């Protein structure tokens, strides 16, 4: 057990990274749009996520009150940019891969701390867990980088009229989901590196089944 401190850290970091990946996928603040026309988007700010677009509107209710209007992306709409649909698929894969990595790490750590000295079994599960973590981190890195690039270049989106969104913002900035995703990438990469670095201790009475 004294040789697996980094792998225990890998499990802790991988757990936090997986949670952050899930959070980034769930929140709508991927791209923050600032718009000039506040007739419908009352606050002048809209949030473009990977599942829906939302904004605050005072239009349909009594003065002094507000509500959040959201429109979910349904099916495949050619007007929605590829980076949004790519983020949907890749983050779902990242969640699944991260969960498999955690499962493999748990199994390997269980054997280590219970004194089950099966070298091949333990080493292989740490290796598998490490590869799953790294693959998950890449699946998060691609959509985060792609959407950040779109934000930095102020890319427009030709939303259908039913979305009540302009095709181009006056300005846009990265939302909270992007830095959360970046932290998730770093933690998952560290987890994968730590898991892959495991070396089974050489002892005289080791059973190497």
TrEMBL record:
Recorded GO MF terms: structural molecule activity
Keyword Aminoacyl-tRNA synthetase tagged: no
Keyword Transmembrane appears in the UniProt entry: yes
Keyword terms, alphabetized: Cell junction, Cell membrane, Membrane, Tight junction, Transmembrane, Transmembrane helix
TM region positions: 6-28, 40-61, 84-109, 121-149, 169-190
InterPro entries the record matches: Claudin, PMP22/EMP/MP20/Claudin
Membrane topology qualifier: Multi-pass membrane protein
Superkingdom of this protein's organism: Eukaryota
GO cellular component, one term: bicellular tight junction
Record Gene3D superfamilies: 1.20.140.150
Localization (cell): Cell junction, Tight junction; Cell membrane
Family designation: Belongs to the claudin family.
Protein name (Swiss-Prot/TrEMBL): CLD34 protein
Species this chain originates from: Pandion haliaetus (Osprey)
């Amino acid at each position: 057990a004294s040789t697996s401190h980094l792998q225990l850290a890998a499990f802790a970091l991988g757990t936090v990274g997986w949670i952050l990946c899930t959070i980034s996928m769930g929140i709508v603040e991927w791209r923050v749009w600032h718009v000039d026309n506040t007739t419908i988007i009352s606050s002048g700010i809209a949030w473009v996520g990977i599942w829906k677009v939302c904004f605050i509107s005072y239009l349909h209710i009594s003065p002094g009150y507000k509500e959040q209007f959201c429109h979910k992306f349904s099916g495949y709409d050619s007007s929605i940019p590829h980076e949004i649909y790519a983020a949907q698929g890749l983050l779902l894969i990242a969640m699944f891969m991260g969960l498999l990595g955690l499962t493999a790490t748990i199994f390997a750590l269980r054997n280590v701390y219970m004194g089950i000295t099966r070298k091949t079994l333990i080493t292989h599960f740490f290796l598998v867990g490490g590869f799953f973590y790294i693959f998950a981190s890449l699946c998060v890195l691609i959509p985060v980088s792609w959407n950040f690039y779109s934000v930095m270049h102020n890319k427009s989106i030709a939303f259908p009229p039913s979305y009540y969104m302009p095709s181009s913002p006056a300005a846009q900035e990265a939302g909270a989901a992007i830095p959360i995703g970046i932290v998730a990438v770093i933690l998952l990469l560290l987890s994968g590196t730590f898991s892959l670095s495991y070396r089974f201790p050489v002892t005289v009475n080791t059973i190497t089944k």
